[in-house]
Design goal:
Layout (H helix, E strand, L loop, with lengths): L2 E9 L4 E9 L16 E6 L3 E3 L4 E8 L3 E4 L4 E3 L2 E6 L5 E9 L2 E12 L5 E7 L2 E5 L3 E3 L1 E6 L4 E3 L5 E4 L5 E4 L2 E4 L3 E9 L2 E10 L18 E2 L15 E8 L9 E8 L2 E9 L4 E6 L9 E4 L4 E2 L9 E2 L6 E3 L4 E8 L2 E8 L11 E3 L2 E3 L9 E3 L11 E3 L2 E6 L6 E6 L5 E6 L17 E2 L5 E4 L15 E4 L5 E6 L3 H6 L9 E3 L10 E5 L4 E6 L5 E2 L7 E4 L13 E3 L2 E5 L5 E5 L13 E2 L12 E5 L2 E9 L10 E6 L6 E4 L19 E3 L2 E5 L3 E7 L1
Parallel strand pairs: 4-10, 12-20, 21-52, 42-46
Antiparallel strand pairs: 1-2, 3-5, 5-8, 6-7, 6-9, 9-10, 11-14, 13-18, 14-15, 16-19, 17-18, 19-20, 22-58, 23-24, 24-25, 25-26, 27-28, 29-30, 30-31, 31-32, 33-34, 35-36, 36-37, 37-38, 39-40, 40-41, 41-42, 43-44, 44-45, 45-47, 48-49, 49-50, 50-51, 52-53, 53-54, 54-55, 56-57, 57-58
Organism: Koribacter versatilis (strain Ellin345)
Pfam families: Big_2
Protein name: Ig-like, group 2
Length: 683
């Protein structure tokens, strides 16, 4: 038998089928049918199924068991695996079809097109400049302006960064103060950005409750951690805001941190004016109107050619008892003086308040009537109030005699009275607004002045050491007091300061001086009384004139005593804690000569570091000129750090007022003027 076999193979793109044909001797066998045709599979997706008008997305597909893939909407036939970028102009459904023979698979993807919105043109941030304490927060709001004229809040769409996260951190526009300093906060989107500026001060912790900070009257605040010689410059420091008031501010401002008023906590600065008004302001500028304001009398109209005018109201610096939240303040009400005890949280009178101040003593002076002397209506209550020994002490000047009167701080009942010259005249308590100093035992130290032709006996031109009941324990009167009287050269034109204990044989000192420019260093345990030769520890001459020099309370800080005489520059004298003696010449001095009356300085520091000496120049006060705030390196006052004329009009203070010192507290500097309180700080 002749046998032969032939094989023919047919191969398609999707499958292989082998058909075996056999022919054996002309006889034919049976045929196997082909398997059924398989359908293709397909995946089809879009990278973004929603796009803005004018933007693109990518279509991606993958087919198996297919010969080809076709996509509509103008894309056409594509390989079985691939992708293509599309930019639809409207919402579009794309259909992809995979084909194999007579079989196919279809998938669709819909890309939604949202209309193109307006283009962002600019970003603004509110507030653009603000102030925080460490730990405080401020939510910023960012507004976007678009090319169609619309605007909207885009705060949460932005990227927020801080130039110094150690000073202030930021997230979603919420800024948190971290450390004292200043920095910029930047918000950015789509290549655009905007900035806000934040100044941060240390958390508030300081109280300024009395004249020159405390009862030693040293004029130094050693808890200032925000203001330093490095950042008090014209670029980083200046006037932050102003509060208008209704009269001259001769009284030094007072300050309380974290005081609750009307349910909210504020750092508060208190201001008293010659219009008999007392204000409580938010010291950080968080509220433009007063927290409270009270009027406590009707001021007297006066015309003192060399002194206060046109109104005589509140002239002395009040004093605050933080334990009871009570402010004691004396107001001129018509022709009488009235002592008020005010609640510092509301301004309301406390129980038993107010009381009219009266007084009389036995005496044969020129104004004696029936053997008695009475507190006269022409006095000024000029010296700062003193709170000590459970009493409030009031001192009077600008009248025939010097008067001291004490009132119980709780009942406001009069507890003691003293007249410095009951059988003569003069001996008034002026001290250019300074206040009596109190030692650890409760004794109080004062200085008295004089006027042309005042007569002895009495205590004209004297340092007085007095008991809590206003009896004299000791005193010093210079040997040339008669000459001082003839020339109106008050010893008590300036104030005094109690020095820290030194390690010499005379550890307890009081220092002060007057118009003749002599600075007296006295032994508080034996003051020297009146001798033909002055019995004092030391005398240092300062000033540039014969009889018109010191009108200030000295400042003591870290081994230096500072004074600024009339028509002179600021001067620093060294003081030894070993000997208790001053250097006879200034260790450093400034270069700016102040005019009439010089200035009363203060010092702020962080312990014994970062000392800054501050003072206000009031050379042009008589013509209504602006006060000028000056700041110097306290370790060398020849180095002026800043003054308020350096930045043009940006930092200009209100019309100057004489004698009133600035106050530094918790990163702020408060400057009194004739019609406003100016607040300076980091910018």
């Amino acid at each position: 038998m002749n046998t032969s076999c032939r094989f023919v193979s047919f191969l398609s793109l999707a499958t292989s089928l082998t058909i075996l044909l056999a022919s054996c001797g002309g006889n034919s066998g049976s045929t196997t049918p082909p398997p059924p045709e398989a359908a293709p599979s397909l995946t089809f997706s879009a990278a973004a199924t929603s796009v803005a008008d004018g933007t693109s997305t990518t279509l991606t597909w993958k087919a198996s068991n297919a010969d080809s893939v076709s996509i509509d909407n103008g894309i056409g036939t594509e390989p079985v695996t691939g992708s293509v970028k599309v930019t639809p102009t409207k919402t579009t459904t794309y259909t992809a079809t995979a084909v194999h023979g007579s079989k196919s698979a279809t998938q669709t993807v819909t890309v939604t097109v949202t209309p193109k919105g307006p283009a962002l043109q600019s970003i603004s941030i509110s507030p653009a400049s603000f102030y925080l304490r460490v730990g405080e927060k401020q939510q910023l709001k960012a507004t976007g302006s678009f090319d169609d004229g619309s605007s909207s809040d885009i705060t949460l769409q932005l990227t927020w960064t801080s130039a110094s996260s150690t000073t202030a951190g930021v997230g979603e526009g919420l800024v948190t103060g971290a450390a004292a300093g200043a920095t910029d906060i930047t918000a950015s989107l789509d290549g655009l950005s905007a900035k806000a500026h934040v100044a941060v001060s240390a958390a508030a912790s300081t109280n300024v409750l009395t004249y020159h900070y405390d009862n030693t009257r040293d004029g130094a605040i050693a808890t200032e951690t925000t203001l330093t010689p490095a950042n008090v410059t014209k670029s980083g420091f200046g006037k932050r805001f102003t509060y208008a008031v209704d009269g001259q501010i001769y009284a030094q401002p007072l300050y309380m941190a974290s005081l609750k008023i009307a349910g909210a906590t504020h750092n508060v600065v208190f201001v008293a004016t010659e219009n008999d008004s007392v204000y409580a302001f938010d010291a950080d500028g968080r509220q433009t109107s007063p927290l409270w304001k009270v009027s406590i009398g009707k001021p007297e109209t006066v015309s003192d050619p060399l002194g206060i005018k046109p109104l005589l109201g509140i002239t002395s610096t009040p004093v605050i008892d933080a334990a009871t939240n009570t402010m004691y303040v004396v107001a001129r009400d018509g022709s009488k003086f009235v002592l008020h005890a005010l609640d510092v949280t509301t301004g309301a009178e406390k129980a038993g308040s107010p009381v009219t101040v009266t007084g009389s003593v036995s005496g044969s002076g020129g104004d004696s009537k029936g053997g008695g002397i009475t507190l006269e209506g022409g006095c000024y209550q000029r010296s700062g109030l003193v709170l000590a020994n459970g009493n409030v002490y009031l001192a009077f000047a600008h009248c025939a005699h010097g008067w001291l009167i004490a009132y119980d701080e709780t009942s406001l009942q009069q507890t003691a009275i003293f007249n410095s010259t009951p059988d003569g005249s003069g001996g008034t308590f002026w001290m250019s607004g300074g206040a009596g100093a109190v030692d650890a035992g409760g004794d109080i130290y004062w200085m008295t002045g004089t006027n042309f032709g005042d007569s002895q006996p009495g205590y004209n031109n004297a340092f007085l050491k007095m008991s809590r009941t206003l009896t004299i324990d000791d005193y010093f009167m210079p040997s040339n007091t008669d000459t001082l009287i003839k020339n109106d050269a008050d010893l008590g034109s300036g104030g005094l300061v109690l020095m820290p204990d030194n390690s010499s044989g005379t550890p307890h000192e009081v220092i002060g001086g007057g118009k003749d420019g002599r600075i007296f260093v006295l032994n508080r345990d034996r003051m020297g009384e009146y001798q033909s030769t002055d019995d004092v520890l030391q005398v240092v001459q300062t000033g540039t004139q014969q009889y018109n020099n010191l009108h200030c309370t000295p400042v003591y800080w870290n081994g230096s005593l500072y004074v600024h005489s009339a028509s002179d520059v600021i001067r620093a004298y060294g003081w030894s804690s070993s000997t208790g003696m001053l250097t006879t010449a200034a260790t450093s001095k400034g270069s700016t000569v102040f005019g009439s009356h010089g200035a009363t300085p203060i010092v702020s520091s962080n312990g014994n570091s970062d000392g800054i000496l501050w003072e206000v120049e009031y050379t042009d006060y008589s013509s209504g000129g602006a006060g000028i705030l000056h700041a110097y390196d306290a370790t060398d006052v020849s180095k002026e750090l800043y003054n308020s004329t350096q930045a043009g009009s940006r930092d200009t203070a209100g019309p100057a007022i004489k004698f009133t010192p600035p106050v530094v507290a918790d990163g702020q500097v408060f400057v009194s003027t004739s019609n406003e309180l100016d607040i300076y700080g980091l910018l």
